[in-house]
Design a protein that fits this description.
By secondary structure, the chain is of the alpha+beta class. Helix content is 47%, strand content 20%. It contains twelve helices and eight strands. The longest helix is centred in the last third of the chain and has 19 residues. The chain is elongated, with a radius of gyration of 25 Å.
Length: 300
């Protein structure tokens, strides 16, 4: 019998996309015969994961969870929105979110290599096995953690997993209103989609570009330089109101800005950060007709 070594397992994983333990089992069952091991995995349906890995996965599920002063949000993608309703897939994402919350792991490679809770295999191997079971390409896309030394982190999930939000408020107050405010602001973030926390977080290059546009527009009015300067300042303030969370009118009370809502929660309350994941944002989706999808499924 041929001795099974790490290089053989690595080669089989690269050829099939199967998990490490599955590759080890296949090589043991076939006495180290690489081609037979590939066939063994194919017969088990495990090697299908490699074939599916080239497909675009822009659907799936976003989940945000929080406990006390810490929160986590993750995005796991799949090919179709049907998978988001699959109990096994949802269970994987829920467990993964709690895993990120507990460990603080957000580096994808480190997260994928970490032991999946309740099992003997890694996060990536667990996902690979899920691909083989469900029959669609899936990928762990991103994860983020927010925390505060004192205060609260709130989580909000919108549209059944299409958008996930975290908001962090730092305060020494134990006022219940703080937690309610953090959650309400998370709902605001889901709807308003701010790009920055405050004006200090705006990329200087972005701001310079906006100011140049505003200046050109103002000069076209033919106004005196002093008036033009005031016009540019006014448009910059409006720009901040559109893109900075704390400057935005609060969706539940548009007479107040978000920073005023935070201040009303507790005397020392400070909104220190937010995270917003929208499912599939930035992924170029493939467009196929229904007949093509049925044919593709039949040939999978």
């Amino acid at each position: 019998m041929t001795a099974i070594n790490a290089q053989m397992v690595k080669e089989l994983r690269e050829r099939t996309g199967a998990g490490m333990l599955d590759c080890q089992a296949a090589l043991r069952e076939t006495s180290g015969d690489m081609e037979a091991a590939v066939d063994w995995l194919r017969k088990k349906g495990i090697a299908k994961a490699a074939k599916k890995a080239s497909r675009v996965a822009a659907e799936g599920l976003v989940l945000a969870v929080a406990q006390g002063t810490k929160g986590a949000v993750v995005e796991v993608n799949a090919e179709t929105d049907f998978v988001a309703k699959n109990p096994d897939f949802r269970r994987f994402v829920e467990t993964l979110a709690q895993h990120v919350l507990a460990t603080g792991l957000t580096d994808l490679e480190a997260l994928k290599a970490s032991p999946f809770p309740g099992g003997a295999v890694s996060v990536q191997d667990t996902l690979t096995n899920l691909v083989a079971t469900i029959g669609e390409n899936m990928s762990l896309r991103r994860a983020q953690v927010l925390s505060v030394p004192q205060g609260t982190v709130a989580a909000y999930v919108h549209m059944n997993g299409k958008i996930g939000v975290l908001t962090a408020i730092q305060t020494a107050s134990a006022e219940p209103k703080v937690a309610e405010t953090a959650r309400n602001i998370a709902m605001h973030v889901a709807a308003a989609n701010p790009q920055f926390l405050d004006s200090s977080a705006v990329n200087p290059e972005v701001l310079a570009r906006e100011k140049a546009v505003f200046a050109d527009q103002a000069k076209a009015s033919g106004k005196p330089e002093a008036i033009i300067a005031k016009m540019v300042d006014g448009r910059v303030a409006k720009f901040y109101e559109e893109v900075c969370l704390i400057e935005q009118p609060f969706i539940m009370d548009t007479d107040r800005r978000v920073k005023e809502v935070v201040a009303a929660a507790a005397p020392d309350a400070k909104l220190t950060g937010f995270a917003r994941f929208q499912l599939g944002e930035g992924i170029e989706k493939q467009v196929t007709d229904f007949a093509a999808e049925v044919a593709a499924a039949a040939n999978a």
